[in-house]
Design a protein that fits this description.
With 195 residues, this protein is an alpha+beta fold. The protein has two domains: 1-31; 35-191, Umud Fragment, subunit A. It has helices at 2-31, 164-167; strands spanning 33-37, 52-56, 82-86, 94-102, 106-110, 113-116, 119-120, 144-145, 150-154, 170-171, 175-184, 190-191. Strands 1, 2, 3, 4, 9, 10, 11 and 12 form an eight-stranded antiparallel sheet that branches. The protein has a four-stranded antiparallel sheet with strand order 7-6-5-8, with no helix packed on it. The longest helix has 30 residues, at 2-31. It starts with a helix and ends with a strand.
């Protein structure tokens, strides 16, 4: 009888709540929001190295693990959004950059400004930064068309960012989600406008 009482106590007071918390945490991380740490200066001044951010996976539709399926999202990525995606160059590496253009749109970097479909970006953070013509996918005077099913991204710190200018277009299925908040360090906590 004592053994059963002890087991009931441990199950109800410790094991069951811990299991429920673990399942809820896994569900939230997989389908709703996931934390990431910023490792480099490629998004300065938006993010500083060491900033910790939350990424909204619901916005564009979370991936269902171990399948090729994605849940429906409530919006499509658009110019100026800060997105987290898996690298198409380095396996299992997550990157955070600013979404510039999607499949079918054209991109050109001219005199430090980004032109999408021939129109310079005039609103949002992407319009505030100077972008350099560097790499194979941002030559001076060349207009690039983004292939269908792919997207083009740039780091806010153009002088120190490996982005689509160097390694090209990213498959749309690589998108993890939309950055929406810096949650650490405390002095930098804030919601992100995205555009």
């Amino acid at each position: 009888m004592r053994i059963n009482l002890k087991w009931d106590y441990w199950w109800n007071e410790w094991i069951k709540p811990i299991l429920i918390a673990a399942v809820l945490a896994m569900f939230i991380r997989t389908f709703i929001a996931q934390p990431f740490k910023i490792p480099s200066s490629s998004m300065v001044p938006t993010f500083m190295p060491g900033d910790r951010i939350f990424v909204n996976k619901l916005a564009y539709g979370a991936k269902v693990p171990f399948t090729g399926m994605r849940l429906p999202g409530y919006e499509e990525p658009s110019t100026g959004d800060i997105v987290v995606f898996t690298s198409s160059v380095e396996e299992k590496k997550y990157l955070v950059k600013r979404y510039i253009a999607s499949g079918g749109e054209t991109v050109e970097i001219k005199d430090g400004a980004v032109l999408v479909d021939g129109n310079p970006l005039e609103e949002g953070a992407a319009a505030e930064f100077f972008y350099y013509n560097r790499g194979e996918f941002a030559p001076r005077g060349v207009v690039l068309r983004v292939p269908e099913g792919k997207f083009y991204v740039l780091g806010d710190n153009s002088a120190n960012s490996m982005d689509s200018r160097y390694w090209g277009f990213v498959p749309k299925e690589n998108i993890v989600g939309k950055a929406f908040m810096i949650h650490w360090p405390l002095r930098r906590v804030r919601l992100l406008s995205g555009r």
